[in-house]
Specification:
alpha+beta
Length: 725
């Protein structure tokens, strides 16, 4: 049996989880874990709260409580919210546990023994008024890389750059508001540079299967060269440094938080009564390790953590790091300061039903920011509930089960004599499909349907084929971490089931061909079971309800129900026996009204309408605007720029001349569809060089709600060179 270790990024225990966190790391991880469990694989799913670092102490000071009060508050709240969300962790631990401190100190001591840590006296910001050295997040200033004036002491949120705090320009202490001075202090620096070549080889061995955003960010870090990094900090809150003359110093969270995955696994093993069992998950080459996270955590899991693991003999490294981009909210970034966000707790208070939770899971899964930032809107949430989950999946289940209660005494119909071989033939058909794994659905219908039409109608064959090939496609997408596509594959099976019910018209055959009607409903019940398994990773609460209604054992990938065979693989086969009792069906998804969504939109930003939350731009004069010359232009030719996913090289006619423009639209438009388009360009822009090629202008495009781009074009046909004003 395959063994897979799954970790989800440890959420920081200084605030409540919001929907962006769920979409980036947790829903994708849980879906993948449940899928593997349903496939009968041996899985361990580990997570927990990250509870050290400066942000905790800052929150404690703001709320006038202790750091322990802060972590207890948010750990408890987030753990409960995760449980309601349906996260199927094997363990949800915390880095304040003694077992974590022991693990981190054990690693630190070994780094010391191996000469990987070097003592160094170096300048650090010191607040003379507060009489303390300033940890990175206690100081803000201007980023040395991009010039943002809201950069933190170790990282700029605007450009993502990491640096030493003394490189920060115009630093200000967040404790006193004063300009700090630089004083010398001793720290232990980890020699990351010793692992430069090893990490380059590690990346090269995985870049073919890793996501492009993961590869590019990792490569960028390695290209800069790995430098020594301070592994300690002057603080009272954290894990004490286990070294002489280290009073008042703790292990830096960069180097101890990720070890929480290991300490949590140790805790899990102890709770199972097998204290050494953690080693087969972290030190056995037969274990595959997958780390789910958001893009802001990539380098910690592709460089820092692999180095820490490599520095201690026998540990496995991440096999894949399927990091996602960010989720926006109603077209804007999540922002605590602007109250622009939806905490998971708030959602669960306003939408308390398990089915509501599953609608959220489904919506976030379909809109997962797998390759670029995506957007959550209440309108889309409503549409996913009303037009997909309720109208397709819920509608199918309700129609079938209501029909059975009305016409078959609430029991799965028995197969009449003329269809007695249907179950056996169904199994034979699936075996024929599996004997030829390269077979497409279209080929199957053409090559196999004639031989089976004596057992099935064309509609029967089409539905069974849709279930088999749809489930295979979904499984392939799960394995490739294309979870959005896997969800669509599952919903397409539900659409095929609805089509089957419509095409077979049981409301007619019940009157003139009762045998065929019984056969139709027998097949429909089997497909409800199939759908309940395939949707279980996505909407586990509703999937369990579906299984209960048809009297089946609950199989939704929960950790307490490990499988030795693949429920996913077998779900395409008929399992429900004739005359099995069917419970009175319940509505799986209630319709969500417009008024409910409008109320939620009005809550955003603490304003009555979302439009008032748009940030006010800096005002310019009409003379400033007149400096910009906008003209319509016709695209004459287009091609992709080599080694760039984003750039298209366009030759355009501006009416006054023909020129070349490089546009970052390659992920949203193909060269073929650009030729002949009328676009709007800035014609008096200073020429720029991109990827070694000259660009003489810029196209206008608008951001769309789903994170894409839409070109700005005239409503009616306009010749090239028309002034835009």
């Amino acid at each position: 049996m395959k063994r897979t270790l799954i970790t989800a990024a440890l959420p920081y225990a200084n605030g409540f989880l919001h929907l962006g966190h769920c979409a980036g790391a947790y829903i994708p991880a849980d879906m993948y874990v449940r899928f593997l469990r349903l496939c009968g694989e041996d899985v361990l799913f580990v997570c927990g709260s990250d509870e050290h670092g400066v942000a905790i102490t800052i929150s404690a000071e703001k709320e006038k409580v202790t750091p322990r009060d802060i972590i207890d508050k948010y750990h408890t709240a987030n753990k409960k919210a995760f449980e309601i969300l349906g996260m199927s962790f094997d363990i949800y631990s915390r880095t304040s546990e003694p077992i974590h401190s022991n693990t981190a100190q054990e690693f630190f001591k070994e780094w010391l023994e191996k000469g990987l840590l070097v003592e160094r006296e170096e300048g650090q910001f010191y607040d003379t008024e507060a009489k303390m050295f300033l940890p990175d997040r206690y100081v803000e200033g201007i980023c040395p890389n991009c010039g943002s004036d809201k950069a933190r002491g170790d990282q700029c949120d605007n450009c993502g750059a990491y640096y030493n705090q003394t490189q920060l320009k115009n630093p200000v202490s967040l404790v006193s508001g004063k300009t700090p001075e630089i004083r010398s202090t001793k720290h232990w620096y980890f020699k990351l540079g010793d692992f430069q070549q090893q990490m380059e080889e590690y990346l090269a061995s995985h870049e073919a299967e890793w996501k492009d955003n993961v590869v590019q960010q990792t490569r960028s870090w390695l290209k800069q060269g790995l430098a020594d990094r301070a592994a300690t900090r002057d603080m009272a809150w954290g894990i004490p440094v286990p070294a002489p003359d280290a009073e008042g110093k703790v292990i830096y969270v960069w180097f101890e938080a990720v070890l929480g995955y290991i300490s949590a696994t140790k805790q899990w093993a102890m709770e199972q009564g097998k204290p050494d069992d953690w080693q087969r998950w972290w030190r056995d080459k037969d274990t595959r390790y997958i780390a789910f996270l958001g893009k802001d955590n990539i380098v910690f899991h592709t460089i820092i953590f692999p180095i820490l693991l490599s520095a201690k003999d026998g540990y496995i490294l991440p096999d894949n790091v399927p990091a996602n981009e960010f989720l926006n909210l109603e077209g804007q970034k999540f922002s605590k300061s602007r109250q622009w966000g939806i905490d998971l707790q708030d959602f669960q208070r306003d939408f308390p039903l398990p089915s509501h939770t599953d609608v959220l899971r489904y919506t976030l899964a379909v809109n997962a920011p797998e390759t670029r930032d995506s957007d959550f809107t209440w309108r889309d949430f409503q549409a996913k509930n009303n037009n997909e989950l309720a109208a397709v999946l819920g509608n199918y289940c309700n129609r079938v089960l209501q029909f059975i209660h009305k016409n078959f005494e609430g029991k799965t119909p028995a197969l009449p004599e003329r269809y007695a071989k249907l179950t056996e033939s169904w199994k034979m058909l699936i075996e024929d499909f599996r004997r030829n794994p390269s077979l497409t659905r279209e080929q199957a219908i053409e090559e196999l349907a004639p031989a089976y039409l004596r057992y099935f109608s064309e509609h029967d064959f089409a539905l069974i084929s849709a279930v088999y090939f749809g489930a295979n496609d979904a499984a392939a997408n799960f394995h490739r971490f294309r979870l959005r596509d896997a969800v669509l594959d599952c919903m397409n099976i539900a659409r095929a089931a609805n089509k089957y019910f419509n095409d077979t018209e049981p409301w007619k055959t019940i009157k003139n061909d009762s045998d065929t009607c019984a056969k139709t409903l027998f097949i429909c019940v089997q497909v409800i079971r199939s759908l309940s398994v395939y949707f279980a990773p996505i909407i586990p609460h509703v999937a369990a309800t579906m299984q209960s209604m048809i009297g089946e054992k609950i199989l939704v990938g929960n950790p307490e129900n490990p499988l030795t065979t693949s429920a996913w693989h077998n779900a395409v086969l008929p399992h429900i026996t004739p005359l099995s009792p069917i419970e009175q069906p319940v509505i799986l998804f209630e319709k969500i009204e417009d008024a409910v969504m409008e109320e939620q939109r009005q809550k955003l930003g603490g304003q009555k309408t979302v439009t008032t939350m748009q940030e006010q731009p800096e005002l310019i004069t009409i003379d400033d605007f007149k400096k910009i010359q906008l003209r319509t232009a016709t695209v004459l030719a287009a091609e992709r720029v080599p080694k760039s996913e984003k750039l298209l090289k366009l030759q355009v006619d501006t009416g006054a001349d023909k020129r070349q423009i490089l546009a970052g639209i390659g992920k949203f438009y193909t060269p073929e569809e650009m030729v002949g388009k009328t676009v709007v360009v800035v014609v008096n822009l200073q020429p720029a060089k991109l990827m070694g090629q000259v660009s003489q202008g810029m196209l206008l495009a608008a951001n769309t709600a789903d994170g894409g781009l839409s070109l700005v074009t005239p409503e009616i046909a306009v010749a090239a060179g028309a002034e835009v004003r």
